[in-house]
Amino acid sequence: MTDRYQSPLSERYASKEMQYIFSPDMKFRTWRRLWIALAETEKELGLDITDEQIAELKAHQDDINYDVAKEREKQVRHDVMSHVYAYGVQCPKAKGIIHLGATSCYVGDNTDIIVMTEALKLVKKKLINVIDELAKFAEEYKALPTLAFTHFQPAQPTTVGKRATLWIQEFLLDLEDLDHVLSNMKLLGSKGTTGTQASFLELFDGDHETIDKIDPMIAKKMGFESCYPVSGQTYSRKVDTRVLNVLAGIAASAHKFSNDIRLLQHLKEIEEPFEKSQIGSSAMAYKRNPMRSERIASLSRFVMADVINPMITSATQWFERTLDDSANKRLSVPEGFLAVDGILDLCLNVVDGLVVYPKVIEKRLRSELPFMATENIMMDAVKAGGDRQELHEKIRTLSMEAGRNVKEKGLDNNLLELIAADPEFNMTLEDLQKTMDPARYTGRAKEQVEAFLKNVVNPILEENKEILGMKAEINV
User: Fold this and answer.
1) Mind listing the pLDDT tens digit for each residue in 317-360?
2) pTM metric for this prediction
3) Residue 60 catalytic?
4) Is 10 a catalytic residue?
């Protein structure tokens, strides 16, 4: 369709798997599973519901008569009751017990929780695969010295692999948050119009003991450990806030990663994958723009801004419920997940194809290394009989001169030549050049990478090895 708006999240960015989780088919199939779980629970607790009625409901669980439901909704303007009616048309024997004692939120809210839970599982799978690819990258380049930056100014060297561990660690913090939220997801259960279970008190003749069993039984049938112990008509909208906070955290980590890649690509040290037929610019044919990393940043900003929606919705719910949450939830929750899904696919694609240029990295590092090495040079000169304070002033003066040569005259860094020419240092140029091994200045970066991967990352990857090996397909 070219004559109406189509969401770029579904057209360009999100995977088919995530799109299905938030599809109408997933929603309405889940409604029917919930109606079956409710009917089974009520039968097992003593209501007059037959095996034949349950069997009829199960027989039509997945062949949803959408045309009937759609036509009915035109008349009654109520989606839940339209689907109750459509299910009843297929199940005439069970028609009278479908949705018994429940409100619309029984199917609507429980389905929202189920859908978010499934979506979080897919996010976790992709997040762990991103961590896995970054871990491989960190291992491969754990000992490759590179210029580090603070304030984007040259600083003490690190290694390419060590820098990658910084990206991994942020994603691991997101994984911790995701696991916490995922492990604490609970169903609403079936609590009635204001959360008091009054309708069930009527159905079960005031038997509180029996009513206490309803929610745990429904939860178990739907694959959950429990339901929220109290509610109004809906589950607390604070749950949506917790979920979107996790997504926003992942987006923030991905944004930081993508920024670093964009800067490194500008420096020509590391590039994201660039396909043979890819066009970087319509005007400048030579350009290799980091468009995937830029898209990660773009989508990430959307998710970070989106988190305010459920927060405001949660804060503005009146008493037992208002309906001003509905339209907002239909947008903010699915789109947050679809965007993060696209972000993680892009991250996976970028990391899997990162191109490293060691010669460029070494050239830039060596151009700055004499400045980084001045303390070591000064200590060696002191050992050879020099005066520490005098040598410090000499180093400072010569460093300023070398800096001016680079910045004002466009020359190469000649600090080593200046030091060698000063008799107070008593060091030849050859002696000084021997101190220029970049590996001498990376501290424990290599060992930190090894320890981090061994003690922190690999146990998590081993625990989740059955979901590793994902590849991401990027549409545009």
Assistant:
1) 999 999 999 999 999 999 999 999 999 999 999 999 999 999 99
2) 0.92
3) no
4) no
